[in-house]
Amino acid sequence: MNLLLLILVPLLTATAILLMRNASQVKWVALTGATAQLILAFVLFFAFRKEQAAGNPLQMLFQQQYNWFPSWHISFHLGVDGISVAMILLTAFVVIAGVLVSWNVARMTKEFYFLLILLSLGAYGFFISLDLFVLFFFLEIAVIPKYLLIGIWGNGKKEYSANKLALMLMGGSALVLVGLLGVYFSTPEHTFDLLKLSDIQIPPEVQKICFPLLFVGFGVFTAIFPLHTWVPDGHSSAPTAGSMFLAGISMKLGGYGCLRVAVFLMPQGAKEYSTIIIVLSTIAILYGAFATMMQKDLKYMNAYSSVSHCGFVLLGIGMLTKVSMTGAVMQMVSHGLMTALFFAVIGMIYERTHTRQVNEMGGLLKVMPFIITILFIVGLCSLGLPGLSGFVAEMTVFMGSWQHPDPLHRIATIAACLSIVVTAVYILRAIGQTAMGPIKAGYENLSDATWNEKLAAIILVIGIVAIGTAPFWLNDLVSPASQLILEKIQLVQ
Amino acid sequence: MNEFLMIMKSEWLITAIIFLLLLIKLGKGMKNGSLLLLVQVLLLLNFITGFFFNKEGSLFDGMYHTSSVIIFQKNILSLGVYLISLLFADWLKKSEHLPEFFILLLSALLGMFFMISSGNLLMFFLSLELATIPVAAMANFDLGKKISSEAAMKMILSSAFSSGILLFGISLVYGATGTISFVTLPTQLNGSTLQILAFVFLFAAFAFKLSIVPFHLWTADVYEGAPMATTAFLSVISKGSIAFIFMSALYKVFGSMNEIWYNMVMILSIATMIIGNLFALRQQNIKRFLAFSSIAQVGFILVGISSSSTEGVSSVVYFVLIYVFSNLAAFAVAASISSQTGKEKVDDYKGLYKTNPFLSWVLALALFSLAGIPPTAGFFGKLFLLTAGASKANYMFITVAALNMIVSLYYYLRVIRAVFMDKNEQPIEKINTDPATKLGLVICGAGIVLTGLLSWIYDYIQSLN
């Protein structure tokens, strides 16, 4: 499996989009590209499983290395482990769904799809790079598309949201940058190479400074409390596909970075700051859940619940056990699929009713049975119904965090568990108001989902159910990688 | 004799072009269009020959010296001047005194060439004057506009003032060490109070020319008043050349006083970034906006200079190369709009994308590059400056610089937002750009994208050291 393909396919797609003449050509090119991405992701998955089954002892598979700025000891070093493969699969699912959902974007179609594909390019590059400079490069590449997607095709106070998002994420990257430079100069040979850095021990005093920089910097992307404020505004102003990409892919960059860069390279720092991470993520979980209860707007609702759900990711990472870290990755995948689907459904409803206010809707189940059924599925997934992915992921995080016997970890775990009750309240209330009851005037003649919307929803539902009913494949994929991270943590005493 | 010709090859070439233009001016003269084409071809040839037949060495007892880095620096400046002749074609064609403009511009360029090659404080002073005075005349080139004369006046007064400071510094250096040669000067430095005082005066003169805070006050007014081509020349070529000589003076001549000037550079760098950024936030006029943003960029250059390492040299040279592409592109878009519609305010740019997609994308690329966002080259440029600066392990400094990148992103996004997002009833109409300008913009766009991604460009610069 040649990992470069994951970068080249989006790149070629984006170039081809620029060359197309009319909107329908652009759409089909984008869809072809997204399908190719999905196929590639599956090929990678099976190839990886095959290697794993054959007992390949290497930490990172399919490695490739090219010279890039050799005078700074930077190289274009690619490779994947189970965690990256899981994230790549997630990205491919969300991308194809996002492309399908945006089929009706009429304004500047070419630019829209170009930016979507560019965003996916950044995500793939980020997940496969083993050089911190390259990783940072791909992390930042996604800033322009996000900003423009929200600012041009968004709605509501889109300029404000786009600015807020770009500046806060840039702030996060600035912290990451300083942290990375600290790591770079702490080693005698000055390297950005992840594997080389993991072999040498980074001095404790450097870890003490650089770990919080890196963790908080990446944390901004995944809505660490109190730097989560871009999430509600950004998601609610973005166009449907924009929200899907933001919540489904972009927020995962942060979680992945926290785990892969901050915790993996600086286990000592992770141990030292684990209490703070746990406290902050518990606050995020509870705060997000309660804030969701107060929302009337479906998109704001999902955005705040994303804050809560991403809190589980950080909680899982902060707990520093093998199971909890595996759970964190599973929660990333699960939340990515679920929240992308949620935003897609909200977008479909909004396109028909032109409102996102829960109290202005009612009885929609009668006119759009397909869309509302999907809304039910995603809602139940969000509140953690067994059989869907949310349950599996959250359960794994709880199981992992319960392994710590001391009061702090217990309290955090119990508090996080309680948030599920709150989630159930708001989800059931929102769905009930939207779907049940007498149909509101003016909504009688709304149409149900079109082929592209159905396809997008079905693709994502397949992902959610596949994790929910057969979680072992994801678990088997991820846990060897988290085992390695754990071993690094256990070395520190 | 042959050596004498070859070592000073770039200077001879520029002089030849100047004389050719003089002859044309004195003779019958030519139509603006064909003359401009001739100049463009000559400058292109000048840029290309810059890469061949180069000879390193020194002349006149070390008064003048070249090395591969210096030759490369000269090539960057030549490239910038060539791009200016393309990008501002619209305005240049309308100018009544086209030959004079290029004669002045090339004289200034000649001064800069001598300046970065100078091996002696006197030589440096002379060439600096040659690099400055013609620019003041160029600032006055919008002959009908009062604001243009005002800019020229401010420029000549402030540069005379800074020359005074520089001369005073030079005389103090001579008094304190007994030499003004760059070769013998380092051996005489012992860090005595008088020497430090002399150094501070020299430093202040450099700071004036580079418009480092608190010596930046002349910049915005001059930039706003001068014609766009002059402003672009001033902010890119002039700044770049002075950054080069500033860096080599600090490293080679005052290298032993590193501990003293490191703190000066650091404090001024922080002040320059912060003040430049804060003032840029509120500017409405696009020229003033770019003026303050270029002040902030100088702050970043200082981060790289502070490292005093070979990485510092190459990252600064690399950054200036990228800066040539990015800033010239931004100025060129602004100039095309201003020369056809007279509009220079950020608010006038609202809805530009609807009518002028090409110009809008070039502007966006340029601004993203200035802000340091990948995949544009500005990302690599800024990152390498910061990496070089971080080698001193002064993380507060690097953090401040990194945070300043956020502030600068805010105001660059303001322009992007006006161009792409804001609605406007009467957007700027379709601009007919000159073919030469289009070519220039394409070169700049390609430069902005490729200079970063093609890593061998950086490695080439690094290998020159």
Task: Give structural attributes.
heterodimer; A: 493 residues; mainly alpha; two-stranded antiparallel sheet; 20 helices; 2 strands; B: 465 residues; two-stranded antiparallel ribbon; 1% strand
Number of strands of chain B: 2
Helicity range of chain A = over 70%
Strand order of the largest sheet of chain A: 1-2
Q: Helical element count of chain B?
A: 21
What topology, given as strand order, has the largest sheet of chain B? Answer: 1-2
Proportion of beta-strand residues of chain B? under 5%
Number of domains of chain B: 1
Oligomeric status = heterodimer
Cα distance spanning the termini of chain B: 28 Å
Task: Give a structural overview.
The complex is a heterodimer of chains A (493) and B (465). With 493 residues, chain A is mainly α. Chain A has one domain. Chain A contains 20 helices and two strands. Chain A has a two-stranded antiparallel sheet. Chain A starts with a helix and ends with a helix. Chain B has 21 helices and two strands. In chain B, strands 1-2 form a two-stranded antiparallel sheet. Chain B is globular and about 65 Å long. The interface between A and B is medium-sized, with 35 and 35 residues.
List the helices and strands and how they pair.
The complex is a heterodimer of chains A (493) and B (465).
Chain A: H1 4-19, H2 23-53, E1 61-67, E2 75-80, H3 82-101, H4 109-128, H5 132-141, H6 143-153, H7 158-186, H8 194-199, H9 204-221, H10 230-237, H11 240-265, H12 267-293, H13 298-319, H14 322-353, H15 364-367, H16 369-382, H17 389-402, H18 407-435, H19 451-469, H20 472-491
Antiparallel strand pairs in A: 1-2
Chain B: H1 2-7, H2 9-26, H3 32-49, E1 57-59, E2 64-66, H4 68-87, H5 89-94, H6 98-117, H7 121-139, H8 146-177, H9 185-188, H10 193-210, H11 217-225, H12 228-253, H13 258-281, H14 286-305, H15 310-341, H16 352-355, H17 357-371, H18 377-390, H19 395-420, H20 435-453, H21 455-464
Antiparallel strand pairs in B: 1-2
Helix pairs in contact in B: 2-3, 2-6, 3-4, 4-6, 4-12, 4-15, 4-20, 6-7, 6-12, 7-8, 7-12, 8-10, 8-11, 11-14, 12-14, 12-15, 13-14, 13-19, 14-15, 14-18, 14-19, 15-17, 15-18, 15-20, 15-21, 17-19, 17-20, 18-20
